[in-house]
Amino acid sequence: MQQYREETGKIKELLKANPRGLSVTDISKNIGINRNTVAKYLEILRISGHVEMDSIGTAKVYFLSQRIPVSTLLDFSSDYIIVLDNKCRVVQTNDKFADIAGIPKKEIIGASIDEILPPMISNRTLLEKINLAMKGDELVEMLDIIINNELCFLKTKIIPSTFEDGDSGVTLIMENITEDINHRNSLKEEQEKLEKLVSERTYELERSNEMLKNEIIERKIAEEKLQEEYSKTQNYLNVAGVLIIVIDNNARITLINKKGLEILECKKEDVIGKNFIDTFIIEPEREEAYEICRKLMKGSEEIYCEHNIVTPSGKVKLTKWTNVSLKDKNESIIGAIGSAQDITEQRTIEEKLRESEKKYRLLAENTLDSIWEMDENLVFTYANHATIDIIDFGPEGIVGTRLQDHFPEPEVNRMIKIMTGHMKSSSGNEFKRMETVMYDRERNLVPIEIYARMVVDETGTFRGLQGTTRRSADKTND
Fold this sequence. Notes:
By secondary structure, the chain is α+β, with helices and mostly antiparallel strands. It has four domains: 63 residues, Arc Repressor Mutant, subunit A; 107 residues, 2-Layer Sandwich (Beta-Lactamase), CATH 3.30.450.20; 167 residues, 2-Layer Sandwich (Beta-Lactamase); 105 residues, Beta-Lactamase. 43% of the residues lie in helices and 28% in strands. The strands form four sheets. The chain has a five-stranded antiparallel β-sheet. Helix 1 crosses helix 3, helix 2 packs across helix 3 and helix 10 runs antiparallel to helix 11. The longest helix has 37 residues. It is elongated and about 110 Å long. The two termini are 41 Å apart. 21% of the residues are buried. The mean pLDDT is 82.
């Protein structure tokens, strides 16, 4: 393992010095390792994300990749994520999973999955699929679990994974789809109510027609009753907070609720009888919308989709749809009913978040100062590439090491004393400047400036340190 780290380290240093990339033969000649061994190391580094490969003609050229630590990316995810090794032990997880497990994150790492998820592990299908994923199959499993005394449904993707040392494992990505399932159930109940109302109304119409043959006076009574039932149905739809429409077999709108008129920015008389797809779906998406309509008319039970709709004023809105076929009492399909949410603002916010995250990554990886983080045990959990210019160590040589591995013991004690005093005299959130020295790769002492602050959780408990480091001309005791 030591030889592997040394030789892969040489490869990465060589690729760093040659950002345009090198071939396997070039690397083999420069570091004096046979070509087959270099090819094997490069494949492991490529799988683990440290290097990237590009084909130029018949040649394969390798170069270093730029990446943010996986632990940082995991905590940006809204899903619950755990990474298992080939013995089903947890090697990585995110904060959201630790929250639902009710176990501190540091106690989850290294634990077997059956120690942290006893309700899930009883599902033998999950275990079988994890074993299959170990062999290279990407699978999906539906799980249910009690979270805060509520039954929740998790759509779990089981993805084969490869670690930096070439060992295999799996990653479980659990998406909480409880809200979607509850929404589907609610929509299904509304559909059943609507079908019942339609069926009852049809029966009343048939009876009224029969009565009209004998007594014309009963016609007025039947019409009044029909109008009453229609008003009730319209009232039910109008209290819904989403767009609801009913279309016939030709995609013409036969019913729409109040919220639907608000989203479409139309009056009822301007909508009823219009072809919904031709009138409100933007032209590039119309064929797809017609295909969904055809499937509904053939009996598809539920279809979920997203469409951009355009209002008469030209405003485009992104909507998320749930569609079901509408049947009469004889089970004949007479149209379809759809409900939609306006997610334009939600999607805009998501795009802004992605752009903000991209800017943060570029800033962290291109700044000249070393940016770092460490946990409550003073173990480095993140460092950017600027550390190479300061102490000749890249992130891979810093992350996982302790503070005392890089500083003389007296300096460690002095810095801890300074930060402890800073915590007592202020909120601890402000950055504290310190001048000290640290070891470089050759164990030479390098004078540096540190700006650091303590990280505490909502209870005030110390959770680690964050800061930046830069080289200074000499050392001056604080």
